[in-house]
Amino acid sequence: MCVFCQHFLENDPDRECQAFEEIPNIIMDGKCDHTEPYPGDGGYRFQLIPEELETFLELNEVRREFKFPAFRLP
């Protein structure tokens, strides 16, 4: 989910995203979609990169096929 977020930092060796130096496992594992406040996130929440909407929706279809809950959009 994080790779679809505007706050994800691909090329910063010190931070994984603007919200966290190290993204919590519960978010990275897809158990929390980070559309609601999460301790230590500094007010940043998941914000979809607009150009990734189609891929994001395809991912949700795959998740549904495997009986996983779909990721939510804020």
Describe this protein with a few key phrases.
74 residues, mainly alpha, 23% helix, 0% strand
Radius of gyration: 12 Å
The strand count comes to: 0
Sheet having the most strands: none
Strand fraction equals: under 5%
Q: Please give the count of helices.
A: 2
How is this fold's topology laid out?
Blueprint: H1 25-28, H2 53-65
Characterise the protein shown here.
Helix content is 23%, strand content 0%. It is an all-alpha fold. The chain is globular. The mean pLDDT is 93.
Question: What's the short story on this structure?
Answer:
By secondary structure, this protein is mainly α. It has helices at residues 25-28, 53-65.
